[in-house]
């Protein structure tokens, strides 16, 4: 299998705080990886490096040439009177041309993204009145519009209840299989990491560990990540 991403000897830090030293890992095309670590260890910073918003201080980050990234943020609280429907929200970033209407192709892309995220029947619902799971799926649909082959889910399950987390991750797993999407899932939830992803990259201050999730030993994980202390 081809590597979608290779990170080689990456070092990065802010001011006097070094976040990673010699971080090296690969993501195979079609793999599902959890990025886990305690608050403040550098998960978001690594995502920003992968997205090109920050640059390595040493080492390198290389993607396969046709890599296309989709980014799914954690949903924010949205005013119940927020005036957009789920469908209008999904197509919000789509108008890349100067005309205030959507082309047939764009409308088809929106319909496909709504179908892939099982939102078709709910597309006219106001986003502000949608459930947490539906809001999160709307962000996912928005990210799928550009037909990415690499999806970063940034704490996308953090504010959802258990059933909705499972529903969202089942959907992500379906997309991973049907579209051969490579997935990087940022989370504090070890159980979800274990159940839904193949491998994990654990960041701890000054160290990292990349392993298959079936080899994860929860008891050896940093205390902040263990279920009893979970703060999501
Ligand atoms: N632009 C910045 N300038 C200076 N320090 C920063 C900047 N961005 C992040 N940091 C610091 O770098 C460290 C890592 O932050 P980061 O947001 O990557 O952590 P995280 O693992 O994503 O945390 P969380 O789980 O809480 O979201 C933190 O100590 C943070 O305060």
TrEMBL record:
PROSITE patterns: ABC_TRANSPORTER_2. Keywords: ATP-binding, Nucleotide-binding, Transport. GO terms for molecular function: ATP binding; ATP hydrolysis activity. InterPro entries: AAA+_ATPase (IPR003593), ABC_transporter-like_ATP-bd (IPR003439), Metal_Ion_Import_ABC (IPR050153), P-loop_NTPase (IPR027417). Transmembrane segments: none annotated. Residues 5-230 form the ABC transporter domain. SMART domains: AAA (SM00382). Belongs to the ABC transporter superfamily. This is ABC-type Mn Zn transport system, ATPase component. It comes from Lacticaseibacillus manihotivorans DSM 13343 = JCM 12514.
């Amino acid at each position: 299998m081809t590597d979608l991403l290779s990170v080689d000897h990456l070092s990065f830090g802010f001011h006097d705080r070094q976040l990673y030293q010699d971080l090296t890992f690969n993501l195979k095309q079609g793999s599902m990886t959890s990025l886990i670590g305690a608050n403040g260890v550098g998960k978001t910073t690594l995502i920003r490096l992968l997205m090109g918003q920050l640059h390595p201080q040493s080492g390198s980050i290389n993607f396969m040439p046709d890599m296309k990234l989709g980014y799914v943020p954690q949903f924010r609280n949205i005013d119940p009177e927020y005036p957009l429907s789920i469908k209008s929200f999904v197509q919000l970033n789509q108008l890349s041309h100067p005309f205030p209407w959507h082309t047939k192709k764009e409308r088809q892309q929106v319909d496909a993204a709504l179908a892939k995220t099982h939102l078709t029947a709910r597309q006219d619902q106001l986003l502000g009145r949608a459930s947490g799971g539906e809001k999160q799926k709307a962000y996912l649909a928005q990210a799928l519009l550009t037909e990415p082959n690499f999806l970063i889910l940034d704490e996308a399950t953090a504010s959802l209840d258990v059933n909705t987390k499972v529903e969202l991750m089942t959907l992500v797993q379906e997309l991973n299989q049907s579209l051969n999407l490579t997935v990087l899932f940022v989370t504090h939830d070890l159980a979800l990491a274990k159940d839904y992803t193949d491998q994990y990259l654990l960041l701890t201050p000054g160290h990292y560990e990349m392993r298959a999730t079936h080899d994860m030993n929860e008891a050896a994980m940093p205390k902040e990540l263990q279920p009893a202390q979970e703060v999501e």
